[in-house]
User: Fold these one by one.
Assistant:
Number 1:
Amino acid sequence: EKGAYRHFMLKEIHEQPRALTDTWQGRLSDNNVLASSIGPEAEALLARVEAVHIVACGTSSHAGMVARYWIEAEARLPCNVELASEYRYRDPVVPRNCLFVTLSQSGETADTLAALRYAKSLGEGAGYLATLAICNKPETSLTRESDLIMMTRAGPEIGVASTKAFTTQLMCLRMLTAMIGRGPDRAERVVGDIRGVGSAVERVLELDSAISHLAEHFVDKQHALFLGRGPMYPIAMEGALKLKEISYLHAEAYAAGELKHGPLALVDEDMPVVAVAPNNEWLEKVKSNLQEVRARGGKLYVFADENSGLETEPGITVLDMPHVPDTVAPIAYTIPLQLLAYHVAVAKGTDVDQPRNLAKSVTVE
Ligand code: F6R
């Protein structure tokens, strides 16, 4: 039931503080993430992990791409992320003691399932250490056929556009990073950050009405660009996918540093450019990328940390985000992009919960 909400998508966006909190419940101690919470054998198994392969489709693959930044920078393990439809046809090399991770809301996505079956077919020796499914629906093909399961606990997701399933996947991957990492000092801080996510997302949701006004600037446009750097690059990809999917606007994401290698040629006043700019090590670089856009007459819409120093002026509209710790910023910065896509779709009058040509669960290849 939609309750007071006009669409399931909006309801599901607003359920995220609760969903994210449910996802970590019972999986944390005071100073660490509990590997044992995903099964009695998980602790010993995860302690042996020396590499990670993540395979998924669509929005779920974007969560994997964020995790790659986390797993390599924090757990210091090599991590490869691939679209399921590509992975299974390319004869991948499997490193020693590699964990194979699938991400899926439905647990029935044909390409992801086929990739899991392929990974398992490699057998002992040439194959993977173990398979882990991070899944939202219980009792699915993916969960039945994997060695380990971590449920995302977002609850049923009805809107075709994935929202709370995505952010809870990020939460699971945040916890997985700590489980396979070897640095207890860092884990303690991460646990605090994880516990604070629900209230951080509550505060971000307060931007809802400001974003609905922003949406008016997109309704009559044909195209939009999304920019981010580091772990925010896949978040920009997710923002672009949401906009394409439900408001039928052509949107593309670029790593902000890549602009000058081609897409800058597209920038003019009819091309809105959306950027995500948390206060992290990339902020100064992102700011200079934004100047490149402004200098070409592009219209910028920036979701920036309240302490970023960025301010609204001609050509640039800045929406202040509450400060959130770096470790969970990708979760928080997804929210305004979901809201933007939602409000643009509503303003355009498209079918938000059932976009044309799409199905909630893609069970064909
Ligand atoms: C986008 C969306 C799709 C799914 C993709 C994978 O909003 O919902 O891109 O993310 O079809 O689906 P799951 O996660 O069920 O495997």
Number 2:
Amino acid sequence: AKRNQRAGAVIFNAVQASELSRQKTVEEALLAADLETELQLVFQPIIDIALDKTVGYEALVRWHSPSLGLVSPGEFIPIAEHTGRIGLITRLVLKQALEVAKTWPDDIYLSCNLSPHDITTPDYALRIVSTVMSSGFNPRRINFEITETAVMHDFDQAIISIQLLRDIGAGVSLDDFGTGYSSLNHVHKLPLTKIKIDSSFVRDIHILPSSFQIVKSVLALSAEMGLEAIVEGVETAEELAVLKDLGVRSVQGFYFSRPVPASETISTQSVERQQ
Ligand code: C2E
Ligand code: CA
Ligand code: CA
Ligand code: CA
């Protein structure tokens, strides 16, 4: 048994070591990267299912690294966080996203993801505000998405940063809701405008009573707090039907569209051509 344990430990260490070396590789490539040219955005529509209409787009970043190929944001964003590159990435993403959003009709909004550091570091939030203000884009057509974990990391600073963003007229949503540790008590104290219900609660909601109950109570709660609820990760007609029954208004997911390049978003010109 002892020998087996030791073998297990060796295997475990090997896995850890290869994860660490991948992290190191990504970290080094990120530090050497020309982010202005290597980062690109894709946009996933946010659909109003009552109107059957795209009401906004969430900007999602993609990194095309010359040495590593396409690296997912799920992998490089957390690394950028602890190497201090996140401030730059957020501003580049926001600038690019605003340029694209300027080509959309007035009734379509832009939703941008922020990282924990963007809201727990006072200067970062201010720089976001100034990026928005110098773009000339109407801040009322912008929404920022922040995660529960970011908020819980430094609750007091999070309130200040969220309020800064609200003061210029932008909306702020709590992303991945239900996956973190925030108590409802806490959420109530944040100056939010929306809650995004995490995709894990949507998966097979038509056959999983537990997911159904969770989504139902989060919807009731958000209505009570005066917050709009968005459900993300809708993949099938069955899931959508249940959400419709529950009175959900806004959704995102592969069922409607995967994230698309800027050129495939609705532009003012394409709308004029249709009319
Ligand atoms: P997120 O903000 O929760 O974004 C949703 C993720 O789910 C996206 O993955 C999206 O492509 C994917 N998705 C959308 N609909 C479906 C669906 O129906 N089924 C499934 N299985 N997945 C769906 P993506 O683009 O790989 O982004 C992963 C995470 O990386 C994001 O999660 C967000 O936390 C982070 N991220 C992406 N772009 C940015 C950014 O510009 N800034 C920051 N700070 N974080 C970003
Ligand atoms: Ca998001
Ligand atoms: Ca999310
Ligand atoms: Ca997520």
